Amino acid sequence: MCGNFAVSSTDANIIDDLFLGTFYLQHRGQKYCGLSVYDGTQIKIRTHKGLVRDRSFSDLTGMGGFMGIGSTSLKDCQPLKLDSKMGEFTICFSGNIINREEIVDDLKKRGHSFYTDSDIEIIAKLIAQGNNFVDGIENMAGKIRGSYALVLLSKNALYAARDKYGFRPLVMGIREGSIAVSSESCAFCNTGFIILRDVEPGEILEIKKDKYETKKVIHSDIKQYCSFEWVYTANVTSIIDGSPVDCVRRNIGAALAKRYPVDADIVAAVPNSGIGHAIGYSQESKIPFDNVFIKYDYASRSYTQPTQEERDREAKIKLIPVSCKIKGRKVVICDDSIVRGTQFKNDLVVKLRRNGISEIHARIACPPLKAPCLYGVATRSKNELIAAEKTVEEIRKYIGIDSLAYATIEDVAEAIGKPIKDLCLSCWTDQYKV
Ligand code: SF4
C-alpha cells in the first residue's frame, strides 16, 4: 500500500489541496509522510515521520506552487528527490519490486550506489536513465517485476503512471482549473474534486496546469486489480476502477447471509472495515445491525503498522466492547479477514465472553488468507497466516467461537463486479500470475 496524491493547477497556490488530499490517504500508511511542490523556481520537499496532521498548515509556509505531490507511507520516507540529466524531480510510489536484488546488482555493476534499501530509490534511478520522463517510466516498467502506481513532479510537468496489470489503484479528479491524481477518490470528497476517470493500467499521463495527456499505454494481456482494496484496504467512500467500495462490502455481506444463514439476535461488525459487510449481512438476513464494538477514534489502523508488535498493540487497544448490547445475545460478527487468528482469539472473543455473549458466529468477507502479498508492502509472511496451516473447522476451534464461514472467491468477484480473471486473488489462492 502507501498513498499517493498529486495536484496541478492554473492557480499558484496548490498547497491546501495537496495537504488535504494527502491527509485523506492517511489510512494507506502511517509511518512517514511528505509533500513536494514546484514553486516556479525550485522543487521543494518536506517529509516527516508520523501522521500528516502531526504538522499543521502553518508549517507549510513557503510551500506554494502550481503543482505538487504527496505521500503517506508505511515503509519508506517519500517523496524522494533525485537530480538527473532531465533535471531535478521528486517521486512517490506505491507497490513492490519482486526482482529487486537482480536490479540492484545490475545497477551496481554499472556504477550506481544506493543510499537506502527502499524500492522508491530503485524506481527513481531506473526512471532517471530515460531520455525523458515518459521514456524513463517505460524503461522502469520494462525492468521491474511487480507492481507500481506513482506520481512524479518535474519542473515542466507532473506525471502519473500505473503498472500494466492495475494492481494498485490510481484515479484522476477534476475541479475548475485543476487536475488531481490520487490513490483513492476519498481524497477528492472534501477538496471539491470530482472523479474524472481512473488512470488505466499501463497508462503514463503528463499533466500541465489543468490539462492532461496520455503519453503512453503499456499493454498487457492480463489485468490484476487487487481484490483486497475493496475488501479491506480502501476507504469506504472510495470508488475504485468503477466499483464503489461501500457497495462491494455490502454485496459481500449479503452473499455471506445467503450462503451461511444463522439464527441470531443481531449482526455486528469488527469496526471499521467490517461495517459495510455487516450492514450487507443484516439487510439480506433481516437481522438487525447493532454495535458490539466501537473503534476508539484515537487508535491507529492495526494492519498498516510496520511491525507485528505494533500491529498487536494497536489491535488490542482499538476496540471497546459495548457491554449493554452483548449480554445473553447470539451475535453474527462480520470482519474483513482473519490473519493469524490471535486478535479474534485473544481480544474479540475474550471481550465478548467477558460481557456475557450467548453465541458468536463469525462471517469473514474474503476466503481464508493463505499467502503473503508480493505486490504491496509485505506485512505478513506465510507462517503467520493461520489458514496456511489450519482448516476452517480447526480455525473455529482455535479461536473458540460457535461457527465460522468465509466468503468465496466467486462471491468476492461478483460483489466487485469484475471477472475473476481480472482480479488478483493471490493472497487466497497462493498462486501468483505476475
Ligand atoms: S496478493 Fe492480495 S493484497 Fe496483494 S495485490 Fe493480490 S489480492 Fe491484493
From TrEMBL:
Family of this protein: In the C-terminal section; belongs to the purine/pyrimidine phosphoribosyltransferase family.
Keyword Iron-sulfur: yes
Cofactor note: Binds 1 Mg(2+) ion per subunit. Binds 1 [4Fe-4S] cluster per subunit.
Active-site residues, as the UniProt record annotates them: 2
Cofactor: Mg(2+); [4Fe-4S] cluster
Coiled coil regions, renumbered to chain: none
Entry protein name: Amidophosphoribosyltransferase
Broad class of enzyme this protein falls into: transferase
Binding site for [4Fe-4S] cluster: 226, 373, 424, 427
Domain Glutamine amidotransferase type-2: 2-210
An example Gene Ontology molecular-function term: amidophosphoribosyltransferase activity
UniProt: Mg(2+) binding residues: 273, 335-336
Recorded superkingdom: Bacteria
Keywords, sorted A to Z: Glutamine amidotransferase, Glycosyltransferase, Iron, Iron-sulfur, Magnesium, Metal-binding, Purine biosynthesis, Transferase
EC number of this enzyme: 2.4.2.14
Signal peptide: none
Any GO BP: 'de novo' IMP biosynthetic process
Annotated pathway: Purine metabolism; IMP biosynthesis via de novo pathway; N(1)-(5-phospho-D-ribosyl)glycinamide from 5-phospho-alpha-D-ribose 1-diphosphate: step 1/2
Catalyses which reaction(s): 5-phospho-beta-D-ribosylamine + L-glutamate + diphosphate = 5-phospho-alpha-D-ribose 1-diphosphate + L-glutamine + H2O
